[in-house]
Every structure is written in C-alpha cells, then in structure tokens.
Amino acid sequence: MTVKAGVVAVQGDVSEHADAIRRAAANHGREAEVVEIREAGAVPSCDLLLLPGGESTAISRLLSREGIDEEIRAFAESGKPVLATCAGLIVASRDAKDDRVETLDVLDVSVDRNAFGRQKDSFEAPLDVTGLDEPFPAVFIRAPAIDAVGDDVAVLAEWDDRPVAVRDGNVVGTSFHPELTADSRIHDLAFFAEPGASA
Ligand code: GLN
C-alpha cells in the first residue's frame, strides 16, 4: 500500500527527508509517494506529515502567509502522524519564547532556540532513544533544547540532561536532524512503528 507523505517544503532539507521516509516505508513493505508542500490545499490528503529544520522564524512566517499553518493544526488534531525536526520542532511547539515565531501549538513543549552553546553549534552524538535498540547518530545544528514538557508528552531521548526527542501522541519532535545520516529509524518510529514498539 502506498502512503502519501507530505514534506513541508517552504525551507529546509526536503529531499533528505523524502529519502528517509521512502527507506522507512520500504522497511515495512510499503511505498511512499512524497508530496512537497509549498501552498495550502495539499496537507489534508496526506497520510503523514514532516516539518523539516531550517530557520523557524522564516518557516513560521511562510506557513502563515500561505495558510498552511491552519491545515497542519487540523492534520495534527486528526491524529495522523507528524514528525517535526529542529526548526520544525520549534514551529510545532507550544512556546518558542520568541515573538518572531508563531508556533503551531501541536506539540505540548516549550523550547529554547539555539540552546546548545556556540562551541557546540554543530555536533554529532550517539543518542539513546526509547524504542531503538542501538544509539541513533544524531546531528545537532544550532539546535533547540526542550525546556518544559506537558503531562502527556513522553521524553524519548535526552542530551546534556535536556530532552531532545519527544512524543506527544501522534506528534514526534526532535532537536536534531534525523535526515542527515543513512539511518531512518526516527522516521520509522514517528511514522510506521506502533507507538511503544521497538522500531
Ligand atoms: N537555529 C534554528 C532556529 O532557531 C534551527 C536550526 C535548524 O533547524 N538546524 O530556527
């Protein structure tokens, strides 16, 4: 069965995410048709949705200008799976503590933008993630930290004692960029694995 995968493409790593979704789908004997989302109208017919990293101020401005923001809110509320990474996590959050980012409030966390310090602007770390048997090679690029999580949010991974991967029901958020290695287990976890199952 083919799944229709929407990748928000107003900014950020679109083709890398598309490849990771295709690989994760293939692991489950499925095919993914990837739709790049640049304007309103395409989100509702997708089976899953990915919000990539980039620059959260720009992404939130473009989503609201194009009217895609409301469609993403409705999509997340419908219970279909969403993965939001790095700047995507910031945009998906409840509070980014920055007036220039209009958050979607589909993930009950608050975040600190660029929280991982200047000398650590970019780094890779082996991350223990709930549901994965082996550490995930996580690439952090001017990454946000999650500083508060709602009651229904499960912390899946921490780095430096701060949550960097969370699940809020059907919405998974990561501070890091899971599309930048050949490892598609985070996409698998967010989109194809049963919640709570080992991917
Ligand atoms: N620092 C960026 C922001 O605050 C996020 C960086 C990223 O997505 N790699 O929007």
UniProtKB/TrEMBL annotation:
Protein name listed in UniProt: Pyridoxal 5'-phosphate synthase subunit PdxT
Family: Belongs to the glutaminase PdxT/SNO family.
Cross-referenced InterPro entries: Class_I_gatase-like, PdxT/SNO
NCBIfam families, per database record: PLP_synth_Pdx2 (TIGR03800)
Function: Catalyzes the hydrolysis of glutamine to glutamate and ammonia as part of the biosynthesis of pyridoxal 5'-phosphate. The resulting ammonia molecule is channeled to the active site of PdxS.
Pathway(s) per entry: Cofactor biosynthesis; pyridoxal 5'-phosphate biosynthesis
Annotated catalytic residues: C86 (nucleophile), H177 (charge relay system), E179 (charge relay system)
GO MF terms, alphabetically ordered: glutaminase activity; pyridoxal 5'-phosphate synthase (glutamine hydrolysing) activity
Organism of provenance: Halocalculus aciditolerans
Pfam family, one: SNO
Annotated GO biological process: L-glutamine catabolic process; pyridoxal phosphate biosynthetic process; pyridoxine metabolic process
Lineage, broadest ranks: Archaea, Methanobacteriati, Methanobacteriota, Stenosarchaea group, Halobacteria
Quaternary data: In the presence of PdxS, forms a dodecamer of heterodimers. Only shows activity in the heterodimer.
PANTHER family: PYRIDOXAL 5'-PHOSPHATE SYNTHASE SUBUNIT SNO, PYRIDOXAL 5'-PHOSPHATE SYNTHASE SUBUNIT SNO1-RELATED
EC number(s) from the headed UniProt entry: 4.3.3.6, 3.5.1.2
Keywords: Glutamine amidotransferase, Hydrolase, Lyase, Pyridoxal phosphate
